[in-house]
């Protein structure tokens, strides 16, 4: 069987309420020839696993990976990437704030420019407070690394398998987005961005943006990881 051209990984932690809509959108994405979706049950404690068992058989091109214990957002993505079969790899979120079908636009960029690129969405339609936060973090990262680092956590994130195979010690938390972006700069990849619509979360709440305390914790962890990444860059 011919391997897929593109594999999109979607980590899910207690996203049971979002899964019917998510899998429907994934099915529309995998209707594109050469595209697969790998949904990761990232140690969920709700009905995520059972719902995936019910829905995925009706969704050609979609399959799942089960992670027994949640070790972080990045760990779930890395488990999915390890299981993915595509020559182009990527990830997006399960909360339906961005549409998995956005990956089609990223795929077209690879078909146009070749594999030696790094692709990310750029979110449109976010609340003003989130925009201010993102701009502040983007300015900090851009100054720290002396390279443009805008809207780091926007999705989808897409890259070649060869680029992924150069990663040494990727983080297992939300710093994975920053790590991948920085590795792309160090590897000399051309960075391509395209606008994606950003909708309110369909169900549930964000773990990092639920309160000032949670946001401040996220900032401290991101700054600490950024400084380590600056002192000890990953090998390209």
Keywords:
seven-stranded mixed β-sheet, 8 helices, 236 residues, single chain, alpha/beta, Spore Coat Polysaccharide Biosynthesis Protein SpsA, Chain A
* Pattern of helices and strands: EHEHEHEHEHEHHEH
Largest sheet: 7 strands, mixed
Count of individual domains: 1
- Beta-strand fraction estimate: 15-25%
CATH class: Alpha Beta
For the termini, the CA-CA separation is 32 Å
The secondary-structure class comes to: alpha/beta
CATH architecture: Alpha-Beta Complex
Measured on Cα atoms, how large is the radius of gyration?
17 Å
Number of strands: 7
With helices defined by DSSP (H or I, 4 residues minimum), what is the helix count? 8
Going across the major beta sheet, what is the strand order?
Answer: 3-2-1-4-6-5-7
Overall geometry comes to: globular
CATH homolog superfamily: Spore Coat Polysaccharide Biosynthesis Protein SpsA, Chain A
Low-pLDDT windows of residues: none
């Amino acid at each position: 069987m011919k391997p897929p051209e593109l594999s999109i990984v979607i980590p899910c932690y207690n996203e049971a309420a979002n899964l019917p809509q998510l899998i429907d959108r994934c099915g529309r994405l995998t209707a594109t020839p050469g595209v697969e979706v790998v949904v990761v049950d990232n140690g969920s404690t709700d009905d995520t696993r059972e719902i995936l068992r019910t829905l995925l058989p009706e969704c050609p091109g979609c399959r799942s990976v089960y992670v027994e214990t949640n070790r972080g957002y990045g760990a779930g993505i890395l488990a999915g990437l390890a299981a993915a079969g595509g020559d182009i790899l990527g990830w997006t979120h399960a909360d339906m704030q961005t549409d998995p079908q956005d990956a089609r636009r990223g795929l077209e960029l690879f078909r146009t420019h070749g594999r030696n690129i790094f692709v990310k969405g750029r979110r449109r339609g976010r609340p003003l407070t989130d925009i201010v936060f993102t701009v502040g973090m983007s300015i900090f990262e851009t100054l720290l690394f002396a390279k443009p680092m805008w809207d780091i956590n926007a999705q989808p994130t897409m890259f070649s398998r060869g680029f992924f195979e150069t990663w040494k010690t990727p983080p297992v938390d939300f710093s994975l987005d920053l790590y991948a972006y920085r590795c792309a700069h160090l590897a000399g990849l051309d960075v391509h961005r395209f606008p994606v619509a950003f909708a309110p979360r369909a169900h549930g709440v964000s773990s990092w943006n639920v309160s000032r305390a949670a946001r401040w914790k996220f900032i401290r962890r991101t700054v600490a990881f950024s400084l380590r990444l600056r002192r000890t860059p990953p090998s390209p």
